[in-house]
Design brief:
Helices cover 71% and strands 0% of the residues. By secondary structure, the chain is mostly helical. Helix 2 runs antiparallel to helix 3 and helix 2 packs across helix 4.
């Protein structure tokens, strides 16, 4: 069993080593893609808990099917496809359950003073606005603005042309700005931020 050096190994190298049974190699892949996988899952599920579950399940599937990754150098894109599919499956499973939603206050253990309520309302409106975006726009805006990925990285991982990524980001931000302008006080903040 070879040892992974302090140099940053490529995805292809880590996949090759993981296929040979090196748990550390797959662990490095998990660490490398944990946040992006969560962001993609969140863009599909729109719920923190579901996104965590879908991302975790995706890593287990990826480990189990590692030999099916035809282009190890594009492991990230292959994994993100698994994440999107697992997330969609989870959403379908959840929608089949015919359960009533809990009242908003029952999930939170934190008291809800005025500021917390305002922040929650803003987060809700942002989630709703994100939920109304096409899936690919949600993924692009979350990977770019939340995770800090560059356009080229997103293009490579989602298997899209770089110009298409820029276009999706532009239209996603435009839609989010329009949705947030409806919130009292936000238009003033947006003018200051521009």
């Amino acid at each position: 069993m070879s040892i992974i050096t302090s140099e940053t190994p490529s995805d292809a190298e880590l996949v090759r080593r993981a296929r040979k049974g090196e748990e550390v190699a797959f662990g490095l892949l998990v660490r490398r893609y944990q946040r992006p996988a969560y962001a993609v899952a969140l863009s599909v599920t729109n719920r923190h808990e579901d996104a965590e579950d879908a991302a975790q399940e995706s890593f287990l599937v990826a480990l189990d099917r590692l030999d099916e990754c035809r282009s190890p150098e594009r492991f990230g894109g292959w994994l993100m496809t698994i994440v999107r599919n697992r997330s969609k499956n989870l959403v379908r499973r959840e929608s089949l359950r015919d359960m009533d939603e809990l009242p908003p206050g029952t999930r939170s253990r934190i008291p809800t003073p005025d500021r917390t309520a305002e922040a929650a309302e803003l987060r809700g409106m942002l989630r709703q606005a994100l939920g109304e975006l096409p899936e690919v726009q949600r993924q692009v805006v979350l990977l770019h603005d939340l995770e800090g990925w560059k356009h080229r990285e997103i293009a490579d991982r989602l298997d899209l042309p770089c110009g298409t990524v820029r276009s999706h980001l532009h239209f996603a931000r435009k839609a989010l700005r329009a949705a947030l302008r409806k919130v009292p006080g936000i238009p003033d903040l947006m003018r200051v931020a521009q």
